[in-house]
Design brief:
This protein has about 725 residues and is α+β, with helices and mostly antiparallel strands. It has 24 helices and 24 strands.
């Protein structure tokens, strides 16, 4: 496609077919999004319809293909711009000599000015017949689609300027307008080239989701073979070499250190256990080869799905874009009608054929709605590029407009505001029991348990001083309640809830419980002498939770936490991140969470990671999935954070506000320009060359204003809070 008029022409042509419910063509990414009956949305049905207009419809191209297409467009434009500039320079020079009166006009050299005018016309021919061809082709296609747009006006303006100039030369007048035709083509080519470069830059934001083709060492036919990554399928075992980039999604068969910086932005590598899932884009940092079982091959990886979804959603349009399209759709026919009316009106006023034609020509030139067509898409593309650079994958670009108007922000608790990993907040023991003694017994008691709290206690009680840990000889476990173990030194240790210990005939003294820590998860430990200690564990808030919540509250948003967890845990976390108790809603079912969300001031934003959050993500005006979100949550969200924490929510809201501000600026300026320019050109005589310069200036201003957003430096994110120290 050549411009936004092409996109509207394709859109209008498809809309007329039966079975099509909705269609949207996104010009910057050359993407078509259509919904309707199966028969009306088949590529085999749509492609011939589009081909009649002179366009080609293909399946969604890969990112590399999009880059190649834009590079080809850039070369195509550059060649025509070079031709237009080279020959147009001589046309403009000849016209300047005539306008400046620098040529002799008295006998016997009175014909010199006319000769120079003919020379001006000769040099304009390569510009008009070669450099301007794309405008004529696109204009003809939009006429075929019965959606005449900017290219029709440009083509009529160029051809009218040339024909009027030839007619004047035939009459012996040197006051020609070849320079107008040349300037119109050259300056519009400059604008198109700048616009294409901006589109190229916006598309490069997706490069973060594209991985290079690599050869992988895979286990096949009872041997390790080097295979291209696209030949490796799910279920196969592959070997990761030290320092190698993980090219496929899979689960580790042994533990190892993984650098997730390229995917998540984490500055420190993470230690992954055996059986843990690793996504393509990470890097293995171990010292020895590591085997991984592939869960998703090329085309089905998390990055592939995310990239495809983002590009499919790009074709969706927000309200501002729809408004701009409607404005551009009636502006071109209005300009044509005004040009046709100006000609007889000027003749009736006695202005003469030459001035009447010049005024009609100026109307055609000044009314080109390219600025209106570019106002919103380029700003939206730049905003999405900024979001991707800051670690936010925007699956639904139309959400940018809604995000700028958000009034309420609601968070899920576990896995969203918290890390999902418990740690010991406070412990208390009977008199005379030291921490090392408690850790020694506890480490043996919880060894091998799969309960999350037991694993957290195991991490806390791991011996850091080389002290020998007791071995566990016998284990008796009541799932979800507690476990009893027999240690190698003959001691018995019990770990579990207060209710379970009571049933084991353990007397709990008054100091065994601290009512001020009711919000935390409580685990009690007993030995042969009775109650030994009580430990309180909490799910730790993500590092930037407090800073992010503070920023949202200061910015005037209504902030809430909605969770299915118990009230104590929810209120305790809310206090730690800076939320008032009345803003923390606990023990809510998925249906109740969605109803509560709809009761908040709208538009609403919901951030959630689990299967139970999918209903809330759909009920909110905009849904965001954090890095660790489940696949169901990712599918239901409009955006996904690619970095740990919730700081991306703050960054996305900032980006959305800046993007909408630039959208409104562009739309208001372009609409004001076209309205005022048309009024002026109807009321007074404006030279066609001045009309060309004004039209191109409006388009370039819109493009550069959008580029200002694309090239802006990323804003700093909220600094993470330091984790609270453990209380003894």
């Amino acid at each position: 496609m050549w411009c936004t008029s092409c996109a509207l022409a394709v859109e209008g042509s498809i809309k007329r077919h039966d079975g099509v419910r909705d269609v949207s063509v996104h010009y910057p990414s050359a993407t078509l999004c259509i919904s309707g009956t199966p028969a009306a949305t088949q590529l085999s049905f749509l492609a011939p319809q589009i081909k009649r207009l002179g366009y080609r419809l293909t399946p969604l191209e890969p990112i590399a293909g999009a880059h190649a297409r834009l590079e080809e467009e850039s070369r195509y434009l550059t060649l025509r711009l070079l031709v237009g500039s080279l020959f147009g320079m001589w046309t403009m020079l000849a016209s300047l000599l005539i306008y400046a009166g620098a040529l002799p006009s008295e006998p016997p050299n009175e014909q010199v000015e006319l000769v120079v005018a003919w020379v001006s016309g000769a040099f304009s021919l390569p510009v008009v017949l070669f450099a301007g061809v794309p405008f004529y082709r696109a204009g003809w296609r939009t006429l075929l689609a019965k959606r005449p747009g900017m290219d029709v006006l440009v083509s009529l303006g160029v051809l009218s300027a040339v024909l009027v100039s030839i007619w004047l030369l035939w009459r012996g007048s040197a006051e020609v307008y070849f320079d107008t035709a040349v300037m119109l083509i050259v300056l519009l080519l400059v604008g198109r080239l700048v616009e294409t470069l901006c589109r190229h830059r916006g598309l490069k934001a997706l490069d973060a989701l594209a991985l290079p083709k690599v050869t992988i060492n895979a286990w096949q036919n009872e041997a390790w073979l080097a295979l291209p990554d696209d030949k490796v399928v799910a279920g196969m075992r592959v070997e990761l070499a030290p320092g190698e980039l993980v090219a496929l999604d899979g689960t580790l068969e042994a533990p190892g250190w993984i650098d997730t910086a390229s995917l998540t932005g984490e500055s420190l590598p993470r230690y992954f256990s055996a059986g843990q899932r690793v996504y393509a884009g990470c890097r293995y940092l171990g010292a020895t080869p590591l085997v991984m079982q592939v869960s998703a091959g090329v085309g089905k990886r998390r990055l592939d799905r995310l990239c495809d979804e983002m590009r499919r959603y790009q074709a969706k349009k927000g309200e501002l874009q729809k408004l701009a399209d409607r404005f551009a759709a009636w502006l071109s026919p209005l300009a044509l009608l005004l040009a046709l009316l100006i000609l007889p009106a000027a003749l009736l006023l006695g202005l003469g054929w030459e001035e009447a034609i010049v005024r009609a020509l100026s109307v055609l030139v000044v009314a080109c709605p390219c600025a209106v067509g570019l106002a919103v898409p380029l700003a939206s593309l730049a905003g999405r590029g900024q979001a991707m650079q800051q670690g936010i994958a925007l699956r639904d670009p139309a959400a940018l407009e809604t995000l700028a108007r958000i009034r309420s922000v609601a968070f899920d608790k576990t896995g969203t505001l918290t890390t999902g990993t418990h740690s010991v907040l406070h412990w208390q023991a009977r008199e005379g029991v030291e921490k090392n003694t408690l850790q020694r017994k506890l480490s043996a008691a919880v060894a091998g348990s799969e309960h999350p709290l037991a694993q957290a206690l195991g991490r806390w009680s791991t011996n850091q001083h080389g002290q020998r840990t007791e071995q566990c000889l016998e284990v008796s476990e009541s799932p979800g309640e507690g476990r009893r173990v027999q240690l190698s030194n003959g001691e018995r240790v019990m770990v579990g809830s207060a209710h379970w210990l009571t049933r084991q005939h353990i007397v709990l003294p008054s100091q065994a419980e601290d009512p001020t820590l009711a919000f935390a998860s409580q685990v009690m430990v007993a030995d042969d002498e009775g109650w030994l200690a009580t430990l309180y564990l909490t799910d730790q808030p993500v590092g930037d939770a407090a800073k992010s919540v503070k920023w949202l509250l200061a910015a005037g948003y209504v902030v809430a936490m909605i969770s299915g967890d118990r009230q104590g845990a929810v209120s305790g976390l809310g206090e730690r991140v800076g939320l008032a108790r009345e803003a923390c809603y606990a023990q809510r079912s998925p249906e109740a969470k969605a109803r509560l969300l709809q009761a908040l001031p709208s538009p609403t934003l919901y951030v959630g990671d689990g299967l139970n959050d999918t209903l809330s993500l759909a009920a909110a005006d905009v849904g965001i999935a954090p890095l660790s979100a489940s696949e169901a949550a990712q599918e239901g969200a409009s955006a996904q954070l690619m970095t740990p924490g919730i700081g991306g929510v703050v960054k996305l809201l900032r980006i959305a506000k800046r993007t909408r501000r630039i959208m409104v600026q562009n739309l208001c300026f372009s609409a004001l320009y076209n309205t005022v320019a048309l009024g002026l050109v109807v009321l007074m005589a404006i030279p066609p060359l001045v009309a060309v310069l004004a039209m191109v200036a409006s388009s370039l201003s819109v493009t550069l204003n959008a580029a200002r957003l694309a090239w802006a430096e990323p804003e700093s994110e909220p600094e993470p809070e330091s984790e609270p120290e453990e209380k003894d």
